[in-house]
Amino acid sequence: MDEHEFRTLILAQHRRLFHFIRKHIKNPSDAEDIAQQTFIEAWRSLHNFRGEASATTWLFGIAMNLIRNFSTRSLNKRYEFVSDEVLDSVESSVDTPAAAAERRSTIKFLDRELLLLDREMREVLVLVCMEGVSYQDAAQILGIPVGTVRSRVSRARAHLRLRLAGTFSDAEATK
Length: 175
Fold this sequence. Notes:
This protein is mainly alpha-helical.
């Protein structure tokens, strides 16, 4: 990859990469720092890029390593949740207030449950289900076999499905 191709990659992926990092690192300032560090590390190791994976996969792999390093060093490993006031300001022309409240409750529940997943399952689930990364690219980013990606996504989904069904069936029973 030459300098022009690298610039093109950065311009094409900077916004998506930042959003990817923000899903893992909730502090916007830290996420910006990690995004910048990703580009710096990519530039420094550009001579090592062999083209075995797509340039985007390679770039996101660097970001994932930096996210892991940050999370390991971080004293506060908990996600920050937005307040109800922030969620209340999100308008929907379709939802009734009851539907909006139920959606907020479900999102809060899923956020909590994501925190309870093993780090490995959470990383794969975020990549594949939230970022839309293919199984193959997720495997390359994380440095694991595709079968492992598939099984972790399956186990994470099954866990969330069971927890969601259990929580809402408990809620129905108390009505």
